[in-house]
Amino acid sequence: INLTHVVNIVAKELISTVAVVPRLLEVLIECGGDTAIGQHHSFYTLISNEEDMLKIVVQIMNGMSATATELQKYLGYWEKYKPIWEMDKDAYIRRYAKTTRSLQNFHDDLTKYRNQQANIQLEESSHLIKFVRLDCGFLKSTLVTHCHLWQQKLLFLLNSCGRQQLDSLHNTFRNITTELTTKPNTLAQLLSKIELLEVTKTPNRICAGGNDISVNIKNKSEIHSTKCEPLDDAESRILRIEEIYTMLTKFEVQIDPNETTGLLNLRPAWKHFQGMLLDAE
């Protein structure tokens, strides 16, 4: 709504209400006094051209103009939160998932949005600019919702990464165990199993992984049958998975019971796997 236009209309309408009010002279003088009546202006004309009245209208207009400027400045105050609502969340998460991120990267981004959420909640819910009171409650609520969405999407991505790494490690133990405990039928199979055992026993070659979290898990190959890639240290891998779930718990993510069970069984599975390697040897 154009407030200046509205005030102009209201001012004219208020003054126009006296247009129908006759001058006392008009009532008392008979019809023969038309000439005398014409020498006196109506109340509407007098009030419309009254200097003090015009000054009041000008003051009101100047006040509204100054208020509009202040309102525009106040809107600019909220621009510092613009990236929260302006950035395409899904597109950003897709790009995020295609890169290799450390656990610290996730922690920093999650902490950033959590802190922004806290700062937004500390903002004033109402603000007075001259004669205009601004209700910022809905704006604050919307921004807090955006912060929640950012955290949820990042945590979902981190949870997916942790779950896939957890499943991958369990599958690695299971696949190699199955391969090494199955009786070979041919010399080629025997040689393949011996090679698999030697590669698996080589230090730092138990499971895929690195110092960072690869969230593009679907492009990683798993160990199947007689195939074993150069692999990273299992203890470090297990520790990273545990750190992922520790962070998820810190940010109050509800972990699936199956994942919780898999996490609890991870170290026992690793010990059992080590025993199996000794038996296979």
Automatic annotation (TrEMBL):
Pfam (any one): DYH2-5-8_CC
Domain of life of the source: Eukaryota
Question: Which spans of this chain does the record mark as coiled coil?
Answer: none
- What are the protein's GO molecular function terms? dynein intermediate chain binding; dynein light intermediate chain binding
Task: Please cite one Gene Ontology biological process associated with this protein.
Answer: microtubule-based movement
Cellular component (GO) terms are: dynein complex
Which residue ranges traverse the bilayer?
Answer: none
Q: Which residues form the Dynein axonemal heavy chain 2/5/8 coiled-coil domain?
A: 231-281
Provide the protein name: Dynein axonemal heavy chain 2/5/8 coiled-coil domain-containing protein
Protein species of origin: Aureoumbra lagunensis
